[in-house]
Each structure stands twice: as C-alpha cells, then as structure tokens.
Records
---
Amino acid sequence: MEWLIGLQALLQATVRMAAPLTFTAVGETYGERAGVINIGLEGLMLIGAVTAYAVAFASGNVWLGVFAAGLAAATFGVLFGVVTITLGANQIVAGAALNLIGLGLSSFIYRAFFGSVTNRAIQPLETVKIPLLNQIPVVGPVLFEQNLLVYAALLLAPLAALVLNRTMLGLALRSVGEHPKATATAGLSVIGLRYAAVAFGGMMAGIGGAYLSVAYANQFVENMVAGRGFIALAIVVFGRWSPLGALWASLLFGFTFALQLRLQAQSIPIAYQFLQILPYVATIVAMILLRGQSAQPKALGVPYTERT
C-alpha cells in the first residue's frame, strides 16, 4: 500500500510540474503553426514570473498577478513580432536576445523592488478538490486535487486543439504557417495573424512563468525558470506541433522533473547534480529520437513580405 501512495504522490507532482510547460508549449505551438519560431520563451517566462510575483505581492491578489504576467509577456511577444514580422529580422537571433532581456530585466526588477524587503511571502494558490471525482482511486487525487492553474492547463490543450483544427481561425493560422502567399491571396492578413499568434504565445509563456512564482514556489528566484523555456521548445517538436501532443509531452517531461525530486528525497547514493539533469537528458534523447521525423510548418522561420 505504501508504494501506491508513493506512486500517487509522484503522479500528482507530475501534473503540477507539467502545467507551466503546457501553457508555454501550447502558446508556442500556435506561434510556430503561424510560421514564427520564438526561442525567447525562457525570457518571456522569467518576465511573467517576476511580474506575477511583484503584482501579487503588492496587491495581495494572486489572480491579478497572473493577469499582469500574461499581459506583460504578451507585450514583449508583440515587440518580438515588430522585430521579426515587420522588420524581418532573424527570428532565432531575436529570440536569443529576448532571453537575455528577460533574464536581465527580471533580475533587475526583483532586486530593485525587493532588495530591502524582508517579508516577501505571498498568499499561495490553494488546492481545489473536485467532489466525487477526487474519490476515484489513484487517478482522483492526481487529477482532481490540484490548484486552478493546473486545471486551466489541462483544459487549455483540448480547447486550443479544437480552435486550431475545427475553426476558421485555426485554418487561417495553419495556412499562414504553410502557404502565407495563398493566405494573402484569399484576402487574409498574414501579418495580422502572425502578430496574434506571437502575442498569444507570449501570453501563455508569461502565465507559465507566473505559475512557477505564485503557484509552485510562492516566491521569485533569479533565473527560476531553469531551462523550462527551452524544454517547451522541444515539447512543441515532440508533440508534432499539436496542442494535445504538447500536453502529453509536457506530462512526460513533468514526470522527469517529479522523478528527480523524488529520487533526491530518497537520499539515494547518487550525486544530486546527476539527478537534476534528468529532465534535460530526456530532452536531448527525445530530439535524437525525432530526428528526420518532424513535420514542421513549411514557412516556419521564413519572414513574409508582399514580395514573398
């Protein structure tokens, strides 16, 4: 019976660890399906994390912090769009710059506003138990005893898949990433659709970062995203540019995060540094296994102009 309790705790942690990855990967899936790759997810998550923490601390309202995080990261997503979509700059270089901006800006904001503050605690998000469903053996506590942001992440993927695959908006976004010239010929705005996609992707990355500071750690730590933005990029490929695929891949990588923490807690005779690299090793292995099997959008990373 003890092993069952341990398995339940591991799976609960898996779902919690997968939530920020799901938010970020689903948002990036939309951006890449529209033809724009943003490797600056790490920076956007950091901006979201520090914004959420600062606003939640100042206002006493965690949800206001989450909203502000999404808005702030969406703003930087639009700025990324200005550089790459309007000005036609290299998307990889612009994304790398965004990572550096996010790292530096988040550290500056935190030190400027909290350098002299001793009590930095915020009210954490409470676990919400769904009656009856949480009584299902093993699965119940795993899926139905989580905070509201986790539920939002689990619902986001199927909703995003529905919009992407079953609506005219989704068809337009997919066509922009495959044949932008044909989309323009049909009378749709390629530029406008790409801006909408990168703004949505930025907002989701910001909420993913907000989750880390206000729903997971309940504090902000410099560079606390710790590579999750890059893992989210791998998840998009691993999930084959599908929101539902991103959800399942996020759960897989969430499991590696949860497993390494549990193995550290067991005090097994392995240096903790080796356990900490487990999620990143899994990322490399996944990318090796998927080599040559990707079905990325044809216009991914290709700037669009009226002469394209």
---
Amino acid sequence: MIMPAKRIIPCLDVKEGKTVKGIRFEDIRDVGDPVEMGRLYSQAGADELVYLDITASHEKRKTLPQLVRDIAANLNIPFTVGGGVSDLDDARILLEAGADKISVNSAAVRSPELIDKIARNFGSQFVTLAIDARKEQQGWQVFINGGRIETEKELFAWAREGQERGCGEILFTSMNHDGAKKGYAIDALDGLSRILSIPVIASGGAGETDHFAELFRRTDVDAALAASVFHYKEIDITEMKRYLSKQGIEVRI
C-alpha cells in the first residue's frame, strides 16, 4: 500500500494585516507581509500554507476577504484560512475569495453544529477543525480566543466529536510547546492519530529538523506545521525534505 507523502506546512499568524509570531501565544511580534511570505514559501517547497487571523475571534471581527484574494493570486499551492469564521456565510465568502480550506476553532467550540453546516454545504474536505489545547493536571484542556479562554472541552473527546460532525482534518496546537522549539507534543499527537481516521496536523514546538523526523517516526500524523523556524530561516524546507527522505520518510521533493 502506498502511503501518502507527509506534508510540511508553514503557518502564518496574521494580526492587523501583518504576519506575527509569539511564544506560547504571547509576546507577539511582526515578522513580515503575509502575501509576500506566502509567495516565497510556495516557491521554497512548502506543500500547503495555513493563515490564521489570531485576534479575529477575540476582537469579534471577520478575516478580511481582500487579503485572501491577494494570497490566492500569488500562490500555486493549497492554503487554509481561519480566524473569525462563525457562520456559513463567513466560510462561503472566504472560499469564494480563493481559500482552499476553512479552519474553524472558537466558534465551533461555542456552536459545534457549525462544523456540520460547513461540511454539509461545502464538503468535509473544506473544513479543518483547529484545536488549541494545554496540558493541565486533569489532562489536555481546550482553549479558545487565541488561547485566552479555557473551556470545559477535553482534547481527545473534542477531536473525535469534530470528526463525527464532518470535519476533514484536525489541526492540533499544543500551547505548552508553541514557540518553545523543544519538539512536538508526541504523546498527544500519537493519541490523536490513533483514535481518528481523518488526517492530523501537528503544530507547536518545532525547533530543528530532527523534531520533524521524530514526529513522523513516532506518530501517524499526516502533516507538520511550523512557523518561526521557517519565518526566521532557521530551517530550509527543501533541505529538510531531503533529510527526511534520507530517513525513509515519504515527502514531496
């Protein structure tokens, strides 16, 4: 059986029209223009991109369709857009603007039927459920509004519910690992990939090439997402893919 190639996905967190990056969801700083960065990543060997408007839900506003149109005009790889998507019309506007997939997070936690509606109207392949969670004493708790508000939802139960409601993939970010560059949350990601039949994207913790290799060796996740190591050119995507290929990990080169 031919296994699908593992995907490498740069993530561009957007705030006020600029790409930004923080550590554990704090200390946010500007790192560049999202359209130009997306174009460069497209040329550099990225398989997909994820754009997340990180303050849209907290500030109760929508992701700007014009930015999505500008991104679409400059890319030749798929990209996902999230942030402030709270109803079917939000999803429709972003898809019509050129997004390949829609990411839902805070609004889906508050109204889980949003997943069903988008999947039913546009197809499961267009819906990514993004989950931000932090490991507490009682387990992995889900947070919303850019990591500002703790909820009663538990990571694994919420991921399973998202799958049952029709999302096409899960994007899990470990808040404990985000920006720390000490490796991914392997145990949690292994658990997610075992209980789910849809693709899992790992996010939070990439600091060096070996962290990607460890992730793909020790879990069955489908993709690795990272931000700062790519934004600050600490890791070259093409070189990393060659390294992963030599390690016996199937990637697109």
---
Amino acid sequence: MPGRSLKDWALLATLVALWGSNFMFVKLGVATVPPATLVASRLVIGAVILVAVIRARGYTLPRSGRAWSPYVVLALVGNCLPFWFITWGQQHIDSALAGILMAIMPLATMVLAHVWVAGEHMTRNRVAGFLSGFGGIVVLMGPAALAGLGGALIEILAQLAVLSGALCYATNTVLVRRTLKGDVMVASAAIIAVAAVISVPIALVVDQPWRLAPSGLSVSAVIWIGIGPTAIATLAYLKLIGSAGPTFMSLANYCIPVVALFVGVAILGEEPGANAYTGLLLILTGIALSQLRRAQKRN
C-alpha cells in the first residue's frame, strides 16, 4: 500500500469533523423539519454553493447528456437515499445508536473494495485494524447503546434505515473510485445538483413544506448541514477517494463516534466514563494497524 500524504490525512480529518458533528445537527434539524424537506434543503444549499464555486473558478457543468449518467447514479446512491434513510432513522433513535450502526460502513467498504477496486485487497493488517476500530466503537458507545438494538417496531425500522444508509455510503465509495472521471469540483457540483433536483419534488409532495413552522434552531442546523457536511464534505470526500482510495476514506467512520463524544462533552455537558477513552484508544490503534504496510512481498 502506498504511503499516505499529509494532504490525505488533512482531508480525512475534515471529513471526520464535518460528518462526526452532523449527527447532532441532523437531530436538531429533524426536530421540526421532516426528513424529506431537510434532505432537499441541505442538497439545494449545497448545490448552490458548489455551482457558484465552479462558476467563479471558470468551470462549467457537462453539456453532454451521456456525461450526466454517472452523476445520477452517484447522486441517488451517495446522497438521496442515505440522507433520507439516516435522517428518517434519527427521528426515532438517538445519535449514539445511529453512530454505532454506521460502523458497518467501513466493513462493507472493505469487502466491496476487495472485489471491485484494484490494489484494495484485504490483508491481515487491514482486517485486524477494522476489527479493532469496530471494537473501539462498541466500547465507546457502551453496553447501554447496544442494549438499544431491537425494541419497538418503529425503533427496529429506524435502525434498519440507518444501516441501509451506511450500506449506500459503502457502495457509493467504491462506485466513485471506479466510475468518476474528470475534475473533482465539477463532479461534486454536478452530483449534488442532480440530488437536489431529485429531492425537491419529493419534499414538495410528501411534506408540503409551505405548511411547516420550523424552529429557528432547526433552520440554522439545516443551513449549516447544507454548507458543511454537504458542500464542503462532498469536495473533500471525492478528492480523498481519488487520491487515497475508498478503504482509507472509510477510516473516517471509526473516528466519527470520537467527534460525537467531544461534541457531547463541550456542548451538551456530558461526562464520559473510562470506556470512552478505552474506545478512543482502540479506534486509533485500528487506524494505525490498517495503514501498516505488509512486510511480505506478494507472490
């Protein structure tokens, strides 16, 4: 495995910060904004920002209809579906449980990349790293979070929705590496714009947003979600996959619960126990293990 550059690690840290805090903002937003409207709103905001950026830099969106085909697929698999699944699920389960369910994403990515992406074969170091990282998430969230699995039918459906979103992300990560060509900024703007075009009519029909009365806190949360975890994170996500690969990018999901922990301490006044720090150590160990080069040469 080639060594990772400082830029790759910086992009990974950016994704961790944006996506790790996103669970909290989604929870605040969905309190008074229904999932379909929240998803459409964040995508519209993200699309406006990204299209404005590429126009300011002298780029243009593709004119050929055929060139838009991969963008449509990536918009559906990587934005519309997982955004809605996770947002809907967070209406009925807490952020901690949503975070632990999202841990399926790097494990699924590892399997998919092994099959579909050249140079992303599973090794003992990678398997050990992923298992250590997943174990860290379990320890971090604690037995109480795991005990939340199951329960009422609506909670089970919410958990399945979040898992579905995680699997969508894993599939999209591999699709990006295999299908995406051309400038990353143009691709980012095109994908989010397509996702917005798909999502807005659905929100208008399902939620009739003109009848809503969202709180100021929810509106502020949705605006930030569109700017940070949507527009900025999409640029960082595509750039990182192109330079470092889907398996490396998926390591962000091991660190997301860590960010949630720090947000809880700093903003919500939570007091983590010793298991939180043990989990953090396991997560960092998993990242280190998965990045070790194999000592043995391939046959």
---
Amino acid sequence: MICYKYPRPSLTVDAVVFKQEGVNTYVLLIQRKNPPYQNKWALPGGFVDMDETLESAVSRELMEETGISDVEFQQLHAFSSLERDPRGRTVSVVFWGWLPNKKKPVAGDDAADARWFNLNNLPLLAFDHQEILQMAIGKL
C-alpha cells in the first residue's frame, strides 16, 4: 500500500430514484438506522469500497438498503461542500434514475425503513440531501 503525506477525503455515492404513478412523482428514501442523523430520512447511499467503481457502488448500496435493483443510473453531480458530513471530509458522487415498475422497497443493511415519498410531501432530509434532491428534480 502506498502512503501519502496528504490527507484524503472519503468517497461516497448517493442514489436519487424516481417513479411515476399517474400525475404524481415519487422519490425513494431510507430512514437512517445509525448516527449521524439517526432516524432521519436520506437518499440511499454509502461509502465506495476500494475494489468497486462508482457505478457498482451506487447499485450495491441501493440493493443493500432498499432491495431494489435494475435502475439505469446517470451521474448527476459531485457534491463536495466542506461541512456536508459531520463524520469528516466526504465527497459524494450522486446518480439518478427512474424505476419503471412499482417495486416495494424493503429496508436492509443500515436502513431502518425505506419508502416512496411524493415530491409534494417530503420529510426533512439528512446531510445535504435536500440540495441534492432539488438538483435532481431540476432534471425532470
């Protein structure tokens, strides 16, 4: 392993998954099981493992936390505000996509719950996920 004298940030991925039912648009959120922001709602996501790509990481995190797979993702944006994660310097690469069918999420891994929320009735979100969601909604 190579050691560097420079500190490095952590790298995470987050998934913004939408579905349409009639005239309503929904986004998939998880309720965090652990700190920080325990019991708060957030986008599915997590840390990138050393042996995976960003694309495989976002698919893995979505499956682990919601039981949902087969979403065709597009990269939305990299979020790098200095104070975005109270655990330390973290950069998140966010992906977004549509789920073509009505899969029911099943909470797993570090998610206490997983649900679809109407975009017109959203809870307060953890981290900077409100900002992330607003950018994704702008793509709709």
